[in-house]
Write a structure and sequence with these properties.
This protein has 287 residues and is mainly alpha-helical. 55% of the residues lie in helices and 6% in strands. Strand 1 (27-32) and strand 2 form a beta hairpin.
């Protein structure tokens, strides 16, 4: 674990273990501080973990504290029964037909990206960071499809939604050492009521979600996006009891904050999307 987070990424640790044991063992174990971890090399075992026996390997290995830090209550952070319940409920939302309905929204944002690119091309004396341009595009797509709002970060690079999304990565609440403590001592960290996200970031996204839901229900607005699907799910008035947590209609308004593809899941996934688009751009220039 030497150098983790400072001189090497976590995936580098996994790569070292994999290269060391790939020819001698189907699996290899190591410790992430005080937590046991395993790297699987055998393809058949990998298939069993990901498909056949997936129900036994649902834990994410990340810290979550829904009581004090509601943004951690999503598919990326949750584990155990709460994760399985939420995944089961949200799987119906991600059918190909329902996701296809959002394509028109993506095309609309893509048209704005084209306009932004035209401005860049015409402004020959000014250098533009393509990765930042892609990040603003993915931010606008997430804002439209997940939150149902127009972020306008393509027109305004320092738009509030964009800045708050960047804060998730660039201004963490705790240092890397404290974050490691929270992951490795999750029970104690929850008892101490520790949080991952900054108060202003959490407050912003929670207020955006609640305001959007209230506005759509009040004015009967339909946009065929992800928020519509979540509101539809909320209105089923289901009562669910999982591991001592009771989910009913009054706190089902928190569902958007628990969904991997909505708030923090989407905010974190925008980094993957913009990196992929940037990579494709560079590959096109230098094949």
């Amino acid at each position: 674990m030497k150098g983790l987070g400072y001189t090497c990424h976590g995936t580098e640790i996994n790569r070292r273990v994999y290269k060391k044991f790939k020819d001698s063992s189907p699996i290899a174990g190591f410790y992430t501080f005080l937590t046991k971890a395993v790297v699987i090399m055998d393809l058949d075992l990998i298939k069993n973990v990901l498909i056949k026996d997936f129900q036994y390997f649902s834990d994410r290995g990340l810290f979550h504290n829904e009581r004090d830090d509601p943004l951690t209550g999503n598919l990326l952070f949750l584990d155990g029964g709460a994760w399985r319940m939420l995944r089961q409920k949200m799987s119906a939302v991600f059918t190909s037909a329902k996701v296809k309905c959002m394509f028109a929204t993506i095309v609309k944002v893509a048209a704005k990206l084209e306009q932004a690119c035209d401005i860049v091309v015409n402004n020959r004396g000014h250098q533009t960071e393509v990765e930042d341009l892609c990040a603003r595009f993915t931010t606008d797509v997430i804002g439209e499809c997940a939150f149902g709002i127009e972020c306008n970060s393509l027109e305004e690079p320092r738009a509030e939604f964009r800045e708050m999304g960047r804060n998730v990565f660039e201004q963490p609440r705790h240092s890397l050492l404290v974050q490691s403590f929270m992951i490795c001592n999750a029970v104690l960290a929850r008892q101490l009521r520790m949080k991952i996200f900054r108060n202003d970031t959490s407050k912003f996204f929670m207020s955006v979600i609640k305001e959007t839901i209230n506005l759509r229900k009040k004015d009967q607005i339909k946009r065929n996006d992800f928020m519509d699907l979540l509101i539809e799910l909320m209105e089923k008035r289901e009562n669910l009891s999982i591991q001592g947590f009771r989910y009913c209609k009054r706190n089902f308004a928190d569902v958007p904050s628990r969904v991997r593809s909505l708030d923090i899941d989407d905010i974190q996934n925008f980094a993957n999307s913009k990196s992929m688009i940037s990579y494709c751009s560079e590959t096109g220039i230098k094949p």
